[in-house]
Amino acid sequence: GGTVYLYEQNRAPAIRTVDAFCGCGGLTLGATQAAIATRRWLESVAAIDLDEDGLAVYQANFGTKHLSHGNASSLVDYHVSGSGATSRFAYEPEILDPNLAEEVGKIDLFLAGPPCQGHSNLNNKTRREDPRNLLYLTAIALGVGLRARAIVLENVPEVINDKSDVVNSAKALLRASDYGWIDSGVLVADELGGAQTRRRYFLIASKNDEIDGAITIKGVAEGLRQSARTMEWAVGDLLSVDSKGPKSGIMDTVPVMSEDNVMRVHHLFDNNLYNLPDEVRPDCHKNGHTYPSVYGRLKWDKPSQTITTGFLTPGRGRYIHPLHRRVITPHEAARIQSFPDTFKFVVNEAMPPNRHNLTKWIGDAVPPLLGYAATLPLMALL
Question: Fewer CB in 10 Å around end: N or C, the chain?
């Protein structure tokens, strides 16, 4: 793979990218894989995120030219008139950051995964009314302001139910900004040969509208359709890792559980259970609850549930290892998220990351597998 990549790098023009709300770079990694699959290569021009250490991880993996640590909203001046299908930019969005301003008109692919907690069904109080939802339109403004040839936005499927109708607003803004080819749809990891049941909504757009019969997200999903992978497939070769000793490093170790959680894990294994009975749960769960996966054990012959930032805590989801009496390790979670072992979750070589940062980078990441499928239709248009 590496030889082909270098060979094509010398022949084909680079696909120049900017990634906003980039995290550690899962979406860019997927786009890189799509570029290689279509005999192209990616040049990471800029990455934007509030997480300074996450940007360092991104830089370590993609050699990015510009890192922008801060609020994406401060990088672009824009105003939206109307709402939903009538949305328009009152004036062309203006890039305010000097480094990004130099790249206006030179970006092929703009990627963004704006915060989605406000849309998630896990967030009942603020669901679909969270002000962060408007960052979806900030992402559109950044892409349009950069005059990127193509744009990809990722979010949870529930974004289409947003109270302020951000998806239809985004599509209207793109149409009015000369993006003649727009597509959207949900991609499901375990339907593409992934090892988790993660679903994500993608909105993609291109200024190149001259290609008839362009490949759609739905078409790519059908073309890449494979049976779901299992936990055994994803992490079976990691069984020999000592998850208790410090010698394995932070990627292959887990935190010490409380006595109550140790008891709950033993109860699952001793009784060959995968769901924890109410009587062994915390008091707040004993009179009924709607979280059967919490304190749950994963199945060796099934895909994982969606990996979130809580994967090191049994009380945050179904994250207990199928065969070991512990939660899954960061290494195992990254594998389930479809990160290759070659991806470096390091800020710098001298200092290992802390567990809080690791769970954030891995749990919040766009699975590269889904990024690959979402950006593949655009490769023919770039």
Answer: N
